[in-house]
Amino acid sequence: MPIKQQLTPNPNRLIGNTVLLLAALFLIVNFILPFVLGPQIPGVPYSLFIHQVEAGEVERVQVGQNQIQFQLKTVDGKAGSVFSTTPIFDLGLPKLLEEKGVEFAAAPPPKNGWFTSLLGWVIPPLIFVAIWQFFIRRGGGGPQGVLSIGKSKAKVYVEGESAKTTFADVAGVEEAKTELVEIVDFLKTPERYTQIGARIPKGVLLVGPPGTGKTLLAKAVAGEAGVPFFSISGSEFVELFVGVGSSRVRDLFEQAKKQAPCIVFIDELDAIGKSRNSGGFYGGNDEREQTLNQLLAEMDGFSAENATVIVLAATNRPEVLDPALLRPGRFDRQVLVDRPDLSGREAILKIHARKVKLGEDVKLTAIATRTPGFAGADLANLVNEAALLAARNQRTDVAQEDFAEAIERVVAGLEKKSRVLNDKEKKIVAYHEVGHALVGSLMTSSGRVEKISIVPRGMAALGYTLQLPTEDRFLMDEAELRGQIATLLGGRSAEEIVFNSITTGAANDLQRATDLAERMVTTYGMSKVLGPLAYQQGQQAMFLGNGAPNPRRMTSEETAQAIDREVKEIVETAHQQALDTLKLNRELLEAIATQLLETEVIEGEKLHSLLSQMQSASN
Ligand code: ADP
Ligand code: MG
Ligand code: ZN
């Protein structure tokens, strides 16, 4: 367990105690003393009071602000006893009393002693002043220090030797680990780098779906390097008063610099780092913008010479981040933390299974095979569920059948979030992705296909095909764009050929293909029919591949129809091209898809050699 330590100076004890004391006095004087000293009148519930009024047993009533006193009717010459009750907001009461002929009046103002009322007047302001003072002290007198809301709430974990998180606690994200080992090295021996004149990276962005171990990795970096770990979540910044977020950021970095070398971890970076022009309808969000600006300023402000502070941040929506955050000197390194593949899942299961007693018959490999799409957190949860089931079944260790039942439970939960595929879906996704890969590998310009995966990734994608450009590209010609469109349609085309049907999974591909085709016609002037005219208003940056197309400029009805025809022609030609390619390579499609279903991921050399067997229709 990490030892949680508040490094912010402890609130001034003396003042805190004074405030408490005054508050207690205030209570005693105002509420308890009058009660103790005043006449002791037995209290009854309000309902009983009403009941007695209705029964005509009440003689007179005195209605006070906090209390109703009432006297029962005289019976046999003996005066009725007096009771009290606490009033509730009851507008019908006077009417009821009237009806029953009860004598009633408001209570005279309470006659406290001069001492009590003096205290009542003097003490509240005193308390107010004391609280004020308390916050001023705590605020440290900084420019924003009037009240403490501006102060950072960053939690600081300084992990004890025995219980620190290390890379051994993280599995299934080997690439991310490799990248972060270097960061650990920076933190341990910054001199080695600064002596040569190398610039130590300031920001590393961990990108990946929830529960894949981003927070865990950040802690492991701190644990491995043996440095303090400041953590704060981006969502804590939203909905604050203007100016508070930025002063929190400033304060956080102030503290961090004092503790350098150290790690500042910003979870949910997207909550503050949303692109400034993605506001759309909402217009600007001043608070978020100021917080973001402050963060940028802080990251620019410290240099390796004065402090080794490395900022790690996590997000599952890298696409919404403000580009300013990703510039050199800020979060210029991005590390993908993806859902684990088969062997990764087994390794994660091993880590978490250490904490429970496993039966002889448990086979983690089999469990890993049955849990595609599970992230690290899901697997940790699975092990715990299985242990709970074992305990419920009065077993002393966890058996394979407990795992089987636990998988069903966890899957049911995940299915609601649509993250687990059944076998049929998995098969479709496999062919779909191989379709992209095969068509993509023939379109040489669109980059080499580096990885095919059917491990669900991100929020929406069920599988993915990763194409890396072989060189930086700034200009694309018509053939290349057509190639990209064909690649996008490759997935759907494979589904058509193999299953003779189409699923909803290709919607995003189609959207992107259509946008691209539309831009060819309306923005890049690539249509012979329409000529080199820009039919779209304004400029849309090219790299925003799936951004919404700009509104069209005013065009005549015929032109609009011509645009539609041209777009359709481009997309359909590309579709045909994809279909032809896949039909020609049908056997390879089957072979790769079968293998993908087994291993879930194919990448690197293995993939290249498979794809090199492709036949091209043109030669
Ligand atoms: P994230 O920050 O990416 O949402 P967390 O780091 O908070 O995910 O993961 C939550 C928990 O799930 C961790 O504390 C750990 O127990 C488990 N977990 C997640 N990913 C892994 C992993 N790759 N290896 C081992 N355990 C993991
Ligand atoms: Mg997290
Ligand atoms: Zn697709």
Question: Describe it for me?
Answer:
- The protein is elongated.
- It is built from 20 helices and 13 strands.
- Helix 5 crosses helix 6 and helix 16 (478-499) packs across helix 18 (557-584).
- The chain is an alpha/beta fold and 619 residues long.
- The protein has a 6-stranded mixed β-sheet with strand order 5-7-8-9-6-10, sandwiched between helices. Strands 3-2-1-4 form a 4-stranded mixed β-sheet, covered by helices on one side. It has a 3-stranded antiparallel β-sheet with strand order 12-11-13.
- The chain folds into 5 domains: 11-34 and 113-148, no CATH class; 39-106, Signal recognition particle alu RNA binding heterodimer, srp9/1; 155-336, P-loop containing nucleotide triphosphate hydrolases (Rossmann fold, 3-Layer(aba) Sandwich), CATH 3.40.50.300; 342-412, Helicase, Ruva Protein, domain 3 (Orthogonal Bundle); 423-611, Up-down Bundle (Methane Monooxygenase Hydroxylase, Chain G, domain 1), CATH 1.20.58.760.
- The longest helix is centred in the last third of the chain and has 28 residues, at 557-584.
- The model is unreliable at 1-11, 139-150, 279-283 and 538-549 (pLDDT under 50).
- The chain has helices spanning 13-37, 46-54, 93-99, 114-139, 174-188, 190-196, 214-225, 244-258, 270-273, 286-301, 342-353, 364-369, 376-392, 400-416, 423-442, 478-499, 507-522, 557-584, 586-599, 604-611; strands at residues 58-63, 68-72, 82-85, 103-106, 155-157, 203-207, 229-233, 262-267, 309-315, 333-336, 448-453, 464-468, 601-603.
- Helices cover 48% and strands 10% of the residues.
- Magnesium ion (MG) is lined by residues 214-215, 267, 314.
